[in-house]
Amino acid sequence: MATQEITKVFAASRMVNVRYAIRDLAVVAEEVAREGHKILYLNIGDPCKYDFPTPPHMIEAVIKAMRDGHNGYADSLGIKPAIEAIHREAERNGFLEIQSIFVGIGSGEVIDSCLTALLNPGDDVLTPSPEYPLYGAIMAKLDCPANPYYLDEGNGWQPDVADMERKITPRTKAILLITPNNPTGSVCSRRTLEQILELARRHNLIVFADEIYDKLIFDPHEKHISIATLATDVPIVTFNGLSKSYLVPGWRIGWAIATGPREVLHPYMEAVHRLLRARLSAPHPFQHAIHAALEGPQDHLAEVRDKLKRRAEFTVEWAKRTPRVKLVAPKGAFYAHPSLDIPEDDLTFVTDLLKQKHVLVVHGSGFGEKPGTKHMRIVFLPQEPVLSAAYEAMSEFIRERYK
Ligand SMILES: Cc1ncc(COP(=O)(O)O)c(C=O)c1O
C-alpha cells in the first residue's frame, strides 16, 4: 500500500509575531502542577479568581434579561440602555464632544476593531513599553510593526513624551496610552496628558486611551483624569469595560467612547461601525448589566480599592527589604513591575522560580523593556497569606540563587 504523505497546515507568516506572554508559562506551570506541587498564581489579572465577588445586582440584571427573553442578537453597537448609561457617565466625568459609543466582546474586541479599521499594513501606532501585549498581538495580525515608546521607570513610569516624539514616523497613525497602567500600576499625570495632546495635535495623530482600570486608583485624593476631558480638538477613543472595576471579566463586556471633532472622526467611525455590524453583536443579556453597573450601587468599589491598596503596600514593603528587587510603588490597577538586578534574562529567572518555588509571575521581557533592564510583573490580587507565602518563597529563591 502506498504511504500517503502528510501535508501539514501551516499558519500565516504574520502569526510568528503574535504573542501573549502572560500565558506563555502556562505549559511549564501545568508540568509543575502535574508533579503535585501547589502553584501560587500571581500572573493573571482576573479578580474573580480571588476574594472579589461580583456585585449581586449585576447578576440579577443579567438573569432578569435572560428571563425577559433578551437572548437573541442585540444591536451591533450595543443596546440602547447600555449606550445611554455609558454616555451619561462619560458626561458626568467631563467627556467632551462625544461622537460615538459602541459595546464589544470585552474591551479586547473594541480595541481590535478600532485598530483594524484604522491601520493599513505597514502603518504603526506608538505603544508603551512595557505594554499590555494585546496591542502588539493585534498589530502583528494586521502586518503593522510595533513602535514602542518608553515609560520612564526613573520618573514613576510616566510616558517619556520626548521619546514618543522621536519615534514618530511618516506611517504613525496613533498614540496609545494606558492609564492606570498594566503592567506598571502607574497613573498618568495631567501634565503628561497635556503634553501628549500637544504632540497629537502637531502630528495629526489619534489618541487611544485604555482606561479599563480608571476606578481602581488607591488614593482617594488622586482622581483619575481621562485625556478625553482635556481636549475637544483631538480625536480620542477611550476604552473601558466591566471586566476589572465591576469584577466580571468572564462576561466579556467592554466599550469605546470616541470624542473629538465630528467631521474628523466620521469616516473612521463609519468603518468601525461596519466591522461591528459584520460580527452581529456583543453578548446580549450581559449588556443589561452595564446600566446596572454604572448607575446602580457602587459600594463594592471602596472595598476593592481598600484591599488593593493594602496588597500594593504589602508588595512595596516586601520589595523594600528584598535584595536585587526595586519597585516603583503602584498607584492603581493590581500590578507591580519591579526591576531585577540579576545576571540572567528575566524569562530564565521566572521559569526557575516557577520550577523551584512554584510561584508564577510573568517575565518583564514579555511586556517589552529597555535593553539591559530586567523585570517581573506581579499580580497582587491574592489575599495577604498567599502573597506572604509567595514573597517569602521569592526571597528565599533570590537568597539561594545569588549567595
Ligand atoms: C490594559 C488592558 N486593556 C484591556 C484589557 C482587556 O480587557 P477585557 O477584554 O476583559 O475588557 C486588559 C486585560 O487585562 C488590560 O489589562
Structure description:
The chain is an alpha/beta fold and 403 residues long. The chain folds into two domains: 13-52 and 300-401, Aspartate Aminotransferase, domain 1 (Alpha-Beta Complex); 56-295, Aspartate Aminotransferase, domain 2 (3-Layer(aba) Sandwich). The protein has helices spanning 26-34, 56-67, 80-92, 106-118, 134-141, 161-167, 190-203, 262-278, 284-295, 299-320, 346-357, 384-401; strands at 40-41, 98-105, 124-129, 146-152, 158-159, 172-178, 206-210, 236-241, 253-259, 325-326, 335-336, 339-340, 359-360, 362-363, 376-379. The strands form four sheets. The chain has an eight-stranded mixed sheet with strand order 2-9-8-7-6-3-4-5, with helices on both faces. Strands 11-15-14 form a three-stranded antiparallel sheet, covered by helices on one side. Strand 6 (172-178), helix 7 (190-203) and strand 7 (206-210) form a beta-alpha-beta unit. It starts with 25 loop residues before the first helix and ends with a helix. 47% of the residues are buried. The model has no long low-confidence stretch (mean pLDDT 95). It binds pyridoxal-5'-phosphate. Pyridoxal-5'-phosphate binds next to helix 4.
Give average pLDDT, whole number: 95
Q: Give the quaternary arrangement of the chains.
A: single chain
Terminal residue distance: 63 Å
Under the CATH scheme, which class of the largest domain?
A: Alpha Beta
CATH topology of the largest domain: Aspartate Aminotransferase, domain 2
Could you name the ranges where pLDDT drops below 50 across 5 or more consecutive residues? none
Shape: globular
Strand order of the largest sheet: 2-9-8-7-6-3-4-5
What count of helical segments does DSSP give?
A: 12
Structural class from helices and strands?
alpha/beta
C-alpha Rg, in Å? 22 Å
Number of strands: 15
Helix amount, in percent? 25-40%
Topology as a string of helices (H) and strands (E): HEHHEHEHEEHEHEEEHHHEEEHEEEH
Beta-strand residue percentage = 15-25%
CATH architecture of the largest domain: 3-Layer(aba) Sandwich
